Every structure is written in structure tokens, then in C-alpha cells.
Amino acid sequence: MVDWSSLHYDLLVLIVRRIPLYDDFIAFGGVCQSWRFSLKQYSTSQRIPKTPCLMLAEKEGSSYLRGFFSLNLSLSKGIGGMTRQVLLPQAYGKMCFSSQGWLITIGKNLRIKLLHPFLRLQIKLPHMRTLFHQEIKHLDKPVTWSYAAFFDKIVLSASPSETSDYVVMAIYGAYEKFAFCRHGDKSWTKIRTKFPFLECFLDVVYYNNNNKFYCVDNQGGVFACDIRSPDPGLTSTPVTTLPEELAHRISDVTLFYLVESSGTLLLVSQQLDLLVPPVWGEGINEYWTKGFIVFEVGLDGREWKELKSLDNRALFLGHNSSISVEAFDFSGCIPNCIYFTDSFSDSSNMRIPGGGGRDMGIYNMLDGSIQPCYPGQSRSNVTPPMWVVPSLGITNSIPKVAPLV
């Protein structure tokens, strides 16, 4: 019998070089320690394809399996592809966000963890009780907020797969406050703001060029936060605002996203149609994306401008931290397109039969057309489908939790 674990390292590298899909990299590294070592050594010197994949909603009453739809396998005509089932009990029944290749999970017990969806490693984050006080008693009441609706967005400044020097930033609560924690913190640190009841923040992103977090409000105002400061706080006024001559292009109902793309910061407006007017206390029952408008943010003295094309880039938007990739580098990824998932933030939508997940697709910047990004239906009242960027390496400084904890 052949001992596959004793294959020579050079031979293993030859095999790795012929693997076309990220999913198969994961499977290769799971064979044994020597195969995993060769993959890790190879990944430090070579670029492994990491096309975002679509993590589907969990099926009601199903097992701990979670589907991941791979764009790498999409067909050139229409939407084909393959859904791989991943055993992921750590995400079962939990609200999830996605950032830097990791999931952020929030459970009914109010515990928050970082979870690597393919290696099933976990990192504990500070408990929600270190952040909430008066609000905590309302979390289990369905008529108000719940554990699955209290956070609007959670993003990472860097991947825990690559460094332990990362920051977790969260938008939370009824008035969109901000808090952050670092690796190893025992509690969340609230960020000082001067407008707790006036602003409605829609997205936050870590912008590497300035080493700061930037967030956007519902008026197109972009605020900055330097968490390296001894007393971190949001700037009292926007560092820049979408100018009026461009703002007139925005519809009355829009979602804003911030995304770093090719070294610049972009503001993306997702234009929505409300097919059924909102009813107080019942949520918005019907809505649909009709298009997107992309702006280059005027930071550091530069002027704002509307982008008519993304060129070779593709954007991935939703409950994940916003992603930009060079499309030609990835099989199955269409350039000059915006891939989006259902992320309407009205918490009452969590009680709509079927839940979120209806409004997903691929928007073409060239002709304004929208086609499906998934050839089926996947909906959830807790965690609708979202984009996940695969990651491989794990630093030795990160504590590992047993897979079934």
C-alpha cells in the first residue's frame, strides 16, 4: 500500500501547481500534515486564486451542512457552477457577517466569535454584555431588537489568517453606534460620537491607504475614525460629502457601501424600488434592486467623480465587508460588474415569511442589466446568503478552538 503522506515535497508542489480551484486547495491541505505544510509553503510564494464564493443560507431543519456556491465553476453562458457542502456546526442558527475570509458569528447566548468557515477554527471576541447595558434586556424580545438584528455591520481591518494585529469594528444598536476590539481584548471599546441620535450609518470599511476606518451615512457623508488614537472617535463632521451635483443621481431609497478598490475609496449607491409601501411595525414586504451608481470618493483634496466603468474590476457587496477583485485573474468572474446579495437593513424584515435572500444578482455597469448570481433560491430570517473570500494561512499566534466547541 502506498503511503501518500510520505510523498516528496517537490512532488507535492507539482501537484499543487495544477490545482485550479480554491475549494480543492482546502481539500488538499486537509489530507495530512505533510500535504498541509507543502500547501502553506507554496501559498507564501505563489498567488492562490481566491474568488469570493456565495455562502448560502442554512436550510431550515437541516443538518450542520452549509452550502458554498463557487463562482469559479460558473458557466460562460448562464449561471451554472457547483455548490459544495461544508460541515459547519459553529454557524448553525447564528447571525453571521463576513470579512477578510472569516465569519463573525453572533449566537442566541450573545457570544461573538470569529470563525474560519473551511478550517472551522474559532477566536473568541468580547461578549455582547460588555457592550450593551439597558439594551441587553430587550435582545430576546421579538417585538424589538434580537440578537440577530443588533449589529448592522462587522468588519475586520486585516485577516486573522495573516496577522494577530487586527481590529474588529462594529456598527450596532438602534442608533448605529460604533465599537471596536482588538485581538485578545476582554471587552468592546465604544467609539466617541457627537451625534448619537441624528446620523444613520450604513457601512464601514478599513482603508489601508490612510490606515483608518471610514463610514458613510445615509446622506453620503463620509466620516473617519483613527483607532490608533488614545481616545478614538468619529470625526464630528464628514471628512468629505457627496456633492450636490452628483447627489441628485441618487434615488429616494438607496443603500450606500464603501469599498477600497485599486488603491482608491469608492462609494457605491444601490438603488432600490419599493414595490409595496412600508407599513409601520410590519417592515417592507417587497423591494428590488434597479441599479447601482459608483463614485470615487474625494479624499485628501481630490474631487469626487462618478465612474461609468469599473474596467477589469468586479465588486462584491452585501452583509460582507465590501470586496473588489481584478476579474481577469479569476475564472467565472465577470469584469465591470457588481455582485450583490440581499442586505436591506430593516430589522423587521427578519419576521417576513421566507426572510432575506430574494434580492441578489450581478449588475452589469456597461448596459445596466441584472442577471442572477445563483441558479436557485436561498433565504433566511437570520443570515441570508453573503460573499466569503477564502483564506488559507493561519498564524501561530492565533489561539485555536476545537472544531465542535
Automatic annotation (TrEMBL):
Q: Which Gene3D superfamilies match?
A: 1.20.1280.50
Pfam hit, one: Beta-prop_KIB1-4
Identify the InterPro entries for this entry: F-box_BR-signaling, KIB1-4_b-propeller
Q: Where is the KIB1-4 beta-propeller domain?
A: 83-364
Which PANTHER family does UniProt cross-reference here? F-BOX PROTEIN SKIP23-LIKE (PTHR44259:SF108), OS07G0183000 PROTEIN-RELATED (PTHR44259)
Record protein name field = KIB1-4 beta-propeller domain-containing protein
